Amino acid sequence: MRHAFAKSKGAPLSDTDLLRQPGDASPWTPRVLNLLREWNDRAGATAETHYTIAARLGRLNVRLGVPVVVLTTFVGTSVFATLERHVDLSLKILIGGVSVIAAVLASLQTFLRFAERAEKHRAAAEEWSSIRREIAEMLALHPDYLATRGDPKDYLDRLRRRMDRVAAQSPEMGDRAWSRAEERYGLTYRVEPDVGTPEASS
Prior knowledge:
The protein is mostly helical. The chain has 7 helices and no strands. The longest helix is centred in the N-terminal third of the chain and has 49 residues, at 30-78.
C-alpha cells in the first residue's frame, strides 16, 4: 500500500491529505486547523499588545519617578540651608515651591500606579505567550500526532476555557492598542467552525 505522503511526486500535500489515512477521515479537518491558527494569531497579538503596554507604562513610571527622586533630594538637602539665621526669601520660596511639586508628582505616581499596572500587563503577556506556544506545538506536531488524537472538540474546549480564563484576568488593553495589533497580525477574518467547535475567542 502506498504511503499517504507519496500522493504525487513533488506535489504539495494539503492538510486534508496529511490528516487522512486510507479509508479513514481524521476529525482534525482543515477548518479545525484554521481555527487553531486563528487562535494562535490572536494569542500572539494579545501577548504583543500587553508587552507593548507594559513597556510604555514602565517608561512612564521612570519619567515620573526620576523627577520625584531628584526634587525630594533637592528639598532634603536644601532644608539645611534654611537653618541659617539669614536666608534669602527667594530661596525659601524656591524650596517651598519645589517641595510642593515633588509632593504632587509623588501623589500622581501613587495614584496612577504605573509600576503595578505594568506588572499586570507583563503577567498577562506571559500567559498569552504560553497559550501561543501550546498552540504552535500542536500545529508543529501535525499531522501524525494530531491524527491519533481523536475528536478535537475536547482539546478545543479545554483551550477555549483557558483562553477565556486568561482574558478575564487580563487588564484592559484599549481599543487603539488592540486595533494596531489586529492590523499587524492581519486579524480581519473569521473562521466558521464545524458544528460543535467553539467560536474563535476575540
